[in-house]
Write a structure and sequence with these properties.
Blueprint: E1 2-10, H1 12-15, H2 20-32, E2 36-42, E3 49-55, H3 58-72, E4 74-81, H4 84-92
Antiparallel strand pairs: 1-3, 1-4, 2-3
Helix pairs in contact: 2-3
Length: about 100
């Protein structure tokens, strides 16, 4: 599984629909795309919500990102992430 950071920005309409029910919808869409949620955080700043999720492929992460936007009106920037220990090995050329 690959890790993805999903930084979301609410639209004016999506702010009005904040609820536990909508949070459940997020989990459902991510599961339908083969993903699992590591954590979800509300933020202050440029992004309003942060989802850390694992997906089996970039295609599945993209499908979830677009699906969340379509279903909830939340625009996500979905970014692949690599643990720093794995990054260090990659850069050092170690398997």
């Amino acid at each position: 599984m690959m890790t993805f950071i999903m930084a979301g920005k609410y639209s004016a309409d999506s702010v009005k629909q904040i609820s536990g029910k909508r949070t459940a919808k997020v989990k459902q869409i991510i599961r339908q795309c083969g993903g699992t949620i590591v954590g979800v955080y509300a933020l202050l700043g440029e992004a309003d919500i942060l989802v850390i999720a694992e997906f089996p492929s970039i295609d599945k992460a993209m499908k979830a990102s677009v699906g969340l936007n379509k279903a909830l009106g939340i625009s996500f920037a979905t970014i692949p992430a690599l643990r720093v220990e794995d990054f260090d090995k990659l850069v050092a050329g170690k398997p």
